[in-house]
Amino acid sequence: MTYVYTKPKKLFKYLEKSKVDGMLDHARADNTRNYLILQTLWKTGVRNSELRNLKKRDIKKDEITVCGGKGGKDRVIPIDASLWDLLTLFTADLNLDDFLFPLSDMAIRNIVHKYQGDEDVHPHTLRHSFAVHCLKSGMNLRSLQKILGHSNLDTTAIYLDIVADDIKEDYKKIGW
């Protein structure tokens, strides 16, 4: 019998909410646009390319419409009132077809790196952090799948492994 060794899949990196809050605080004190970029990545879970392609017309009172996301799919992502307020103020002088953040992938990466502190953070790290935070907060896996734009629920279910590990760590802290 032949055994085939398969390398275990590397778990993705994500940030705890407190780390993201630190990045946001740093950006808020430094630059409004950069703060809004980080907020949008964190509170929506959009990909870097999707963020770059957002236009003013994609912003509604309680949602963002991602047009032509990965695989050419459109989807709607709910947003909270505070993000909507910030986006509305930031885009007040834009035309409906203007891009919110007309920047390159590298420029957005550099913005994220600027506020990363002692972590190695990329825009996709904030997407992972969003997903883990949503699940830890009790969001339904199917809802998260729709928000992230995953075709397969198994792709979204990967985040459950991370949440399960956190639960085990929290359980170990209990003094029996």
Explain what the structure shows.
Helix content is 53%, strand content 6%. The chain has 176 residues and is mostly helical. It has a single domain (17-171), classed as hpI Integrase, Chain A (Orthogonal Bundle), CATH 1.10.443. Helix 1 (17-30) packs antiparallel against helix 2 (32-44), helix 2 packs antiparallel against helix 4 and helix 6 (123-136) packs across helix 8 (153-172).
Please count the helical segments.
Answer: 8
Number of strands: 3
Which topology does CATH recognise? hpI Integrase, Chain A
CATH class, named Mainly Alpha
Query: How many domain regions?
Result: 1
| CATH-level-4 superfamily name | Intergrase catalytic core
Please tag this protein with its features.
176 residues; mainly alpha; hpI Integrase, Chain A; three-stranded antiparallel β-sheet; 8 helices; 6% strand; globular
List the helices and strands and how they pair.
Elements: H1 17-30, H2 32-44, H3 48-52, E1 59-60, E2 63-66, E3 75-78, H4 81-90, H5 105-114, H6 123-136, H7 141-148, H8 153-172
Antiparallel strand pairs: 1-2, 2-3
Quick rundown:
The protein is mainly alpha-helical and 176 residues long. 53% of the residues lie in helices and 6% in strands. A hairpin with a 2-residue loop joins β1 and β2 (63-66).
